[in-house]
Design brief:
By secondary structure, this protein is an alpha/beta fold. The protein has a single domain, classed as Maf protein (Alpha-Beta Complex). The protein contains five helices and six strands; from the N terminus they run E-H-E-H-E-H-E-E-E-H-H. The protein is globular and about 50 Å long. The chain starts with a strand and ends with a helix. The model has no long low-confidence stretch (mean pLDDT 92).
Length: 191
């Protein structure tokens, strides 16, 4: 089954394809001919995820997976949240986002946080939502070279390594996106 993944983020495509296996073939926005910068103007992960999926469906009539995810830090009342990718002002500048977060948390003892992902699976224009949450903490400095985003400073509960220190095979089953995708796969098996 072919599904468009509403992104051109190669890391997301690789991560999600590994989770989905060979039963599904993911296509990027570029591969379906969508070169637009899809708006993300909602104030929730659900809203942004649905907005991206509907954008693809309305223009291309292609079944679609869209996700919105981010980091929610307890001591910051859930920030950066839906603004995770542009926390430091420039969309997708992971280094600046991490630096800003570490600076903001200087001297803060409560480092508890969670990654949250909401996936919208849009088939024949009908949305289904799947959420994944992984609890953990923010480290005081970067560790590891793998992954992307806030992975170098997020250590999941029960582990002594950050996501950026884990292989994809270690990270995927426990990550927020992995947990949401597992729910989506179960849904697809039953459908």
């Amino acid at each position: 089954m072919k599904l468009c993944l509403a992104t051109n983020n190669a890391h997301k495509v690789e991560e999600l394809q590994a989770l989905l296996g060979d039963k599904f073939q993911l296509q990027t926005l570029n591969e379906i001919g969508c070169f637009d910068d899809i708006p993300e103007t909602a104030d929730t992960f659900d809203g942004n995820s649905l907005q991206k999926a509907m954008y693809v469906w309305e223009r291309f009539q292609i079944d679609c997976i869209a996700d919105d995810s981010g980091l929610e830090v307890d001591a910051l009342n859930g920030e950066p949240g839906v603004f995770s990718a542009r926390y430091a002002g420039e969309h997708g500048n992971h280094a600046k986002n991490i630096d800003k977060l570490l600076e903001t948390l200087k001297g803060v003892e409560n480092r508890a946080a969670q990654f949250r992902s909401v996936i919208t699976l849009l088939i024949d224009g009908k949305p289904n939502f799947f959420e994944g949450i992984i609890r953990g903490k923010i480290t005081h400095e970067k560790h590891g070279e793998k992954g992307f985003g806030y992975d170098p400073i997020f250590m999941p509960e029960g582990y002594d390594r950050t996501f950026a220190e884990m292989t994809m095979e270690e990270k995927n089953p426990i990550s927020h996106r992995g947990l949401a995708v597992a729910k989506m796969i179960e849904f697809l098996k039953k459908a």
